[in-house]
Amino acid sequence: MTPKKTSPPAAALPYFRPDALAFLRNLAKHNDRAWFQPRKAQFEAELREPILAIVRKITDAMADFVATIRQETKTTADYRSRLEERLARIEAMLATGATGAAGQ
């Protein structure tokens, strides 16, 4: 069986084509270097490039997610900082006895 000549796509799609699955089935039958070496270009085009595209897509999605989490964390941290400042002022007032309570 002659290896199929395939050229890598300009931009790999983030999924496996039927040819990739056929390649994997053939690889399971012929799991040796002599069979693989002439088909390495097919491996690159059908499996390696699409898996890298999938990883890039996941990485981009995670980057967006992390940016959102960082923004929420910053907002929470700002709120906590202001809360701590208010609590420190209240504690200082309590320590000096300046509570403003009526009748004292």
Q: What does it look like?
A:
With 104 residues, this protein is an all-alpha fold. The protein has one domain. Helices cover 70% and strands 0% of the residues. The protein has 3 helices and no strands. The protein has helices at residues 18-29, 33-36, 40-96. It starts with 17 loop residues before the first helix and ends in an 8-residue tail after the last helix. The mean pLDDT is 80.
Assess the beta-strand content as a share of residues. under 5%
Please estimate the helix content: over 70%
Question: Would you tell me the overall average pLDDT?
Answer: 80
| Topology pattern, helix = H, strand = E | HHH
Q: So how many helices?
A: 3
Number of domains: 1
Shape: rod-shaped
Q: Low-confidence parts lasting 5 or more residues at pLDDT below 50?
A: none
Number of strands: 0
Name the descriptors.
104 residues
Summarize the structure in short.
The protein is built from 3 helices and no strands. The protein has 104 residues and is mainly α.
Question: What is the topology?
Answer:
Blueprint: H1 18-29, H2 33-36, H3 40-96
